[in-house]
Amino acid sequence: MPPDNIFVARDGSQLHVRPILATDVDAIQRMFGRLSPQEIHLRFQYGIRHLSARAARRLCELDTAQEAAFVLMDRNVEPNEIRGVGRIHADAATRSAEFAVLVERAWTGRGLGAFLMQRLIEECRQRELDELWGQVLVENRPMLDLCRQLGFARRRTPSEPGTALIALHLKND
Q1: Which domains does the chain show, CATH number per domain?
Q2: Least packed by Cβ within 10 Å: which of 60, 76, 87, 123?
Q3: What is the pTM of this model?
């Protein structure tokens, strides 16, 4: 059995699991640089070509009272590379959190997205939040299927016809 900070992918690859660090700016930018325009569209819901250092810093330097982010780091390459990242932004007033997950295309289908979503659900429960939600493009079938398997309910958003609002009610007993 691997240590708690090691994720073993379906193909046997091992990735280090840890919270994102302020020092991950370069690795986040490199990961972004490996994304296709379609992957960027599915995750960010709009097209951007370059992740600036300022934007990368914002993704890596968290306000831990409201945010959490976890990376799956590939230590088998130099420099070490981020293969997946999952994050939440919590709202204390609504006792809910919005999620975002991104897995590098070459690493999809190996369980990284499911692992990151489960880790985010766990984080929300530890924070005693009532709901985890996200907006997902209806064309992003893999994410919608994953969320359905994890128990998320899906609602269409009439104001944004190409987007589904998905939410998981968290039982904090």
Answers
A1: 6-169 (3.40.630.30)
A2: 76
A3: 0.90
